[in-house]
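Q: Please design a sequence for this.
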């Protein structure tokens, strides 16, 4: 297994994250977990392969075990409880965005896969909660003349896709599903984040309570800047990545200069020499 990289920055306060997840509302707060699980089921239905030894890394096993009853459920930890070469499918389910060492997580998944095994990840990224981040930042700058980490930094799809290559996966693909959600007020959004177990658990967060005047100002900015009919809008951006454990049977890129036909001929145009 691959431990956390030495001298890697600590992003997540793990005890705080686990406490937030323990307070999550499994009845009302799992709609994004369920959306991700449904999407992954659809993706697997399009793969011409039957997977018999799946493993799922998740903080909310009740959601994922219902859809994948034969899967081994693995807790979301820095060092994953995965056996080398034991699985033909690994799903990293909606917790990679909290990883202190995401490349290390992916490498552990690759080691757990058999040759030509499939990894699928789902996580928050991109523009997730961009409205809340901007509103809190502006309000805190106005009221306190400073900024503190309040919303988890989100990786962009291009950067996250590159992680698969760094982790040694073949045929890497990354895409996103943007989900605009309407809330009555910013307070309702923050209550929903608590129900999801996705509140601020950053290691560098301010540990004292937020000032009431600052939060009220943030709500004012949010409502004025991001209205949506009779409420406010919030963006959740789900990033999905797939990669295969390397195997000799997989297609390989052609060697440079090995083409049998000129590109100009294929395009039906004249070639202009430089």
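A: Design:
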């Amino acid at each position: 297994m691959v431990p956390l990289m030495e001298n890697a920055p600590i992003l997540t306060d793990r005890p705080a994250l686990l406490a937030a997840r323990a307070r999550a509302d499994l009845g009302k707060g799992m709609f994004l977990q369920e959306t991700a699980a449904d999407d992954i089921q659809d993706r697997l239905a399009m793969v011409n392969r039957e997977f018999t030894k799946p493993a799922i890394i998740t903080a909310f096993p009740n959601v994922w075990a219902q859809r994948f009853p034969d899967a081994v459920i693995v807790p979301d930890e820095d060092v994953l409880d995965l056996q080398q070469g034991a699985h033909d499918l690994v799903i990293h389910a909606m917790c990679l965005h909290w990883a202190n060492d995401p490349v290390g997580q992916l490498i552990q998944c690759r080691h757990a896969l058999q040759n030509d095994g499939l990894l699928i990840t789902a996580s928050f990224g991109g523009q997730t909660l961009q409205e809340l981040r901007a509103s809190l930042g502006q309000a805190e700058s106005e009221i306190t003349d400073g900024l503190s980490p309040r919303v988890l930094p989100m990786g962009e799809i291009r950067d996250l896709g590159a992680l698969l290559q760094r982790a040694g996966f073949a045929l890497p693909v990354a895409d996103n599903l943007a989900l605009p959600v309407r809330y009555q007020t910013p307070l309702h959004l923050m209550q929903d984040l608590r129900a999801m177990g996705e509140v601020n658990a950053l290691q560098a967060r301010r540990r004292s309570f937020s000032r009431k005047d600052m939060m009220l100002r943030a709500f004012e900015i949010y409502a004025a800047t991001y209205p949506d009919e009779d409420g406010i809008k919030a963006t959740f951006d789900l990033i999905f990545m797939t990669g295969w454990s390397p195997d000799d049977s997989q297609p390989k890129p052609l060697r440079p200069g090995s083409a049998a036909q000129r590109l100009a001929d294929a395009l039906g145009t004249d070639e202009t020499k430089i």
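Q: Thanks. Anything notable?
A: Residues 77 and 99 are 8 Å apart (CA to CA). The chain has a mean pLDDT of 90.
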